[in-house]
């Protein structure tokens, strides 16, 4: 005899799928099994969960994998969503099948220990924990299901690890800059100099386009205005971390770099063999920092170098914010000619070795 047909179960592609309407709501989805008995059991559980939710206000049990998928789907425009997805891929093998209301620090210990054994910095591990904590907070406060219930009643407390191994920023001295620049291949040298003299992030440099250049004839100079979002390869991509347009003032060193690469490509400012570069941290960068005896140098240290030199030259905090592209209450791409002149003057101070060389003082605690 054949199997007794159960209302709400349909077999497609060798796998049983649920499609049933109950309590005025439709349940749909794959059971993930080819077994009819297992599919029946899963359907019965889904029906009971819905009955409990509708009649008694009992939340259906959801596992972390469901929450992670929803988080990624809801935040596709987030600037760091690729990074978040990467961290979640590392975490998922350890917690994907754990119910949200059963999550706690203990359930994350195997993930934490595994990452430590891999030699990961505490800050990297904490970034993953922050994403988990954020997802759980959303599940307890903002994610409302069709029954008007949050996914979980309360969010478990996820504590971050103390960061004793955090690496401090390492702004370059002038002598270190000379060593690095001499060791870099030409295309990376131009990118590094541009980053170091404009405070631009890796992503901003790699994706910089000529169409964003703005001439300032009154000052015989130019700037770039990078939009917060742009279409790249048919996808809307967030370019600026803080979600605001980024004004890049070109001091004399940055302007020289721009004139050096002008005409090499019609679309992107910085290219290698006719193609844009995905990231500066590549084999050429790693080889150059070893050759220049700067083995721990990060690309982001170039931005720190610019900020350090601006501060040493006495540039005001507000102007440093604008020049470094930090988020502020000001509309940073709307300036008068006088304000632009002031920013350009401030930016050029980072090119002056005497003005922007900090005098380091050793501070000792009085006992």
Structural summary, described in words:
This protein has three domains: 9-56, no CATH class; 64-141; 174-351, Intergrase catalytic core (hpI Integrase, Chain A). Helix 2 (64-74) packs antiparallel against helix 3. The chain is built from 13 helices and ten strands. Strands 1-2-3 form a three-stranded antiparallel β-sheet, covered by helices on one side. The chain is an alpha+beta fold. The chain is elongated, with a radius of gyration of 27 Å. 43% of the residues lie in helices and 12% in strands. It has helices at residues 36-56, 64-74, 81-95, 109-117, 122-141, 174-183, 186-198, 202-206, 252-261, 283-291, 300-312, 317-324, 337-348; strands spanning 9-12, 15-22, 25-30, 213-216, 221-226, 229-232, 235-238, 246-249, 271-272, 275-276.
Structural class by helix and strand composition: alpha+beta
Return the domain count: 3
Proportion of strand residues: 5-15%
CATH class of the largest domain: Mainly Alpha
What's the quaternary structure here? single chain
- What is the CATH homology-level superfamily of the largest domain? Intergrase catalytic core
Output the CATH topology of the largest domain.
hpI Integrase, Chain A
Write out the strand line-up for the largest beta sheet, numbering strands in chain order.
1-2-3
How many helical stretches?
A: 13
* Number of E-state strands: 10
Per the principal axes of the C-alpha atoms, what is the gross shape? elongated
């Amino acid at each position: 005899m054949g199997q007794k047909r159960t209302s709400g179960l349909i077999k497609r592609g060798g796998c049983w799928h649920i499609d049933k309407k109950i309590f005025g709501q439709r349940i749909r989805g794959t059971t993930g099994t080819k077994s009819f008995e297992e599919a029946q059991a899963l359907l019965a559980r889904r029906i009971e969960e819905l009955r409990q939710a509708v009649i008694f206000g009992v939340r259906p049990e959801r596992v972390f994998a469901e929450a992670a998928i929803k988080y990624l789907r809801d935040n596709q425009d987030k600037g760091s969503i690729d990074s978040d997805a990467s961290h979640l891929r590392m975490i998922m093998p350890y917690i994907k099948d754990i119910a949200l209301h059963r999550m706690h620090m203990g359930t994350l210990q195997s993930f934490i220990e595994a990452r430590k054994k891999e030699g990961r910095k505490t800050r990297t591990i904490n970034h993953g924990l922050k994403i988990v904590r954020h997802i759980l907070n959303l599940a307890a406060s903002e994610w409302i299901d069709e029954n008007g219930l949050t996914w979980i009643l309360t969010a478990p407390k996820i504590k971050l690890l103390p960061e004793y191994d955090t690496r401090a920023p390492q702004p370059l001295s002038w002598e270190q800059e000379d060593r690095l620049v001499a060791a870099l291949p030409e295309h990376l040298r131009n990118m590094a100099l541009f980053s170091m003299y404009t405070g631009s992030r890796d992503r901003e440099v790699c994706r910089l386009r000529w169409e964003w250049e703005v001439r300032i004839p009154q000052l015989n100079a130019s700037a770039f205005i990078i939009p917060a979002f742009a279409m790249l390869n048919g996808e809307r991509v967030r370019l600026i971390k803080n979600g605001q347009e980024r004004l890049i003032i070109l001091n004399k060193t940055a302007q020289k770099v721009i004139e050096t690469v002008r005409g090499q490509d019609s679309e992107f400012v910085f290219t290698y063999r006719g193609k844009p570069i995905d990231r500066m941290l590549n084999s050429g960068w790693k080889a150059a920092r070893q050759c220049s005896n700067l083995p721990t140098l990060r690309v982001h240290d170039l931005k720190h170098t610019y900020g350090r030199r601006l501060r040493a030259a006495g540039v005001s905090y507000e102007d440093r914010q604008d020049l470094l592209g930090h988020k502020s209450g000001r509309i940073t791409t709307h300036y008068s000619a006088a304000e632009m002149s002031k920013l350009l003057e401030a930016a050029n101070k980072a090119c002056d070795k005497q003005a922007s060389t900090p005098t380091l003082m050793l501070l000792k605690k009085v006992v």
